[in-house]
Structure formats: structure tokens, C-alpha cells
Amino acid sequence: MTCLHTISKSPDTQLLESCLKIIASGDAILFIEDGSYYANSARKLEAIDKTCKIYGLREDMLARAILTRAADSVELIDTARFVKLCCDHDKIVSWF
Amino acid sequence: MTENSKPQKSRITFISRAAPYGQNKANLCLDMALASAVFEQDVNYIFFGDGVYQILKGQDGSAIESKTLGNALETLELYGIEKIYADRQSLEERDISEPELLPGMQIVDSDSIAKMIESSDTVFNL
């Protein structure tokens, strides 16, 4: 069973750090809205287990001028793929 | 003592600490500053913490059906607000360098910000 964790607030909120405490291997993390700014801090992303996929919503990053600054470990996706990810995972946990 | 009929001019410092788009704090802070400028107050505008994300070049709000905040910030100068600052440490923490910023920003240290606060009559911290 896998979970999709969506993070929607900026790194100032420490949401990723909280999420990483309870994440299971094989889960996925998706940065949306102000969570996009996590893609700008490659160092924080290094703490994520290598079995966890990291995604970022392209539209939210484009609006915030973060798209070109996104770390290589973040896979950029569109909203259609967001929907597919929601279906492909058993549960969605929202961090906000 | 005579009544002073002229509106008093005060120095107002705005500290904008919110990232754009996710919430409306950035817009509210800007609106307050523009209103103050219309009434000819002496305004300092400081981008601090996540607020520095507001002044990144290349924003495109249309991607999420929002107004691009970077464009709105250009109105600061139109309204006569010329003292616009960004906190150096906030930029460094976010790996943002000066060429990536919108024009017209002065990068300052926290000491200078402390002094600005001290010399202000009112401080809005949003």
C-alpha cells in the first residue's frame, strides 16, 4: 500500500520535516502551491528516502518563477498527472 | 497653540514576509503601502523571509489563473515609493542572487532593517 503526500506550504512551515518522520518507503511526495518552494532547496530534499518519488506541480512552479530553479530530483508534472497519481496511490495525505 | 490643518506626515515601514499566490498577505501588504503613499506618507517597503519570493523575476500568475504579483510591485514606484529593500540573509537562505530580482531593490542587512524600524512611527509586519 502506498501513500501520496501532498505538501502545500512553504519550507518555513517545516511540513516536509514532519512528513518525513512518518513517511513509509515507496510513498511519493508531491509539492503543490507554496510547497513548490521546496523544489528550490535541494539540501532539504536530500533527507528524503531514495525509495520515495518526488513530484512538483509544473503550473504552481511556473507562476512562482521556481520552474527553472527546481532541483533535479523533482519530477515536474501537470494537473492531469496529478489526478493520475491520486488514483495510483491508495491514500492521499495532505500536509498544509 | 494653533491647530495644524496639514495632515501629519509619518514614516511607515512595511515588512512583507509572505510568499506570493498561496495566500493574500502579499497583496494586502502592498495595498496598504500604496494607500499610505497616496496620502503622502514616508514609506519604507521591506521584503523579508518568504517575502523575497515576491521579487523573483519571471513570475507568471496566468499559469494558476492569478494576477502576476511581480507586475503589481512595479506600481510601488509609480506611487512614489522608492525605498524598497530586500533582506540579504533571506535571499541567501533561499539561494537567490541579485540578478534574479526585479529591478529597483536595494539589498540590506538586518542591522539596517532594525534601524529603519527604530526610525519609523509605525511598522506593519505582514
Quick overview of this protein structure:
The complex is a heterodimer of chains A (96) and B (126). Chain A contains 4 helices and 5 strands, in the order E-H-E-H-E-H-E-H-E.
Along the chain, the helix and strand elements of chain A come as EHEHEHEHE
Q: In order across it, which strands form the biggest sheet of chain A?
A: 4-3-2-1-5
The CATH C-level class name of chain B: Alpha Beta
CATH class of chain A, anyone? Alpha Beta
Overall spatial form of chain B: globular
Give the radius of gyration of chain B.
15 Å
Please trace the helix and strand order of chain B, writing H or E for each element.
Answer: EHEHHEHEHE
| Whole-number mean pLDDT of chain B | 92
CATH topology name of chain B, in short, is Hypothetical Protein Ychn, Chain: A
Described by its quaternary structure, the protein is heterodimer
Determine the structural class of chain A based on helices, strands and strand pairing.
alpha/beta
The name of the CATH topology of chain A is: Hypothetical Protein Ychn, Chain: A
The CATH superfamily label of chain B reads: DsrEFH-like
The chain pair forming the largest interface, with residue counts per chain, is:
A-B, 19 and 22 residues
Which tags fit this structure?
heterodimer; A: 96 residues; alpha/beta; Hypothetical Protein Ychn, Chain: A; 5-stranded parallel beta sheet; B: 126 residues; globular
Would you give an account of this structure?
The complex is a heterodimer of chains A (96) and B (126). With 96 residues, chain A is of the alpha/beta class. Chain A has a single domain (3-95), classed as 3-Layer(aba) Sandwich (Hypothetical Protein Ychn, Chain: A). Chain A has helices at residues 15-22, 42-45, 58-63, 79-88; strands at 3-7, 28-31, 53-57, 75-77, 91-95. In chain A, strands 4-3-2-1-5 form a five-stranded parallel beta sheet. With 126 residues, chain B is an alpha/beta fold. Chain B has a single domain, classed as Hypothetical Protein Ychn, Chain: A (3-Layer(aba) Sandwich). In chain B, 30% of the residues lie in helices and 19% in strands. Chain B is built from five helices and five strands; from the N terminus they run E-H-E-H-H-E-H-E-H-E. Chain B has helices spanning 25-38, 69-73, 75-78, 88-93, 110-118; strands at 11-16, 42-47, 83-87, 106-108, 122-125. A five-stranded parallel beta sheet of chain B has the order 4-3-2-1-5. The mean pLDDT of chain B is 92. The chains are: A alpha/beta (96), B alpha/beta (126). The A-B interface holds A 8-10, 12, 33-34, 37, 40-41, 58-60, 62-66, 68-69 and B 19-23, 49-50, 53, 56-64, 66, 68, 70, 94-95.
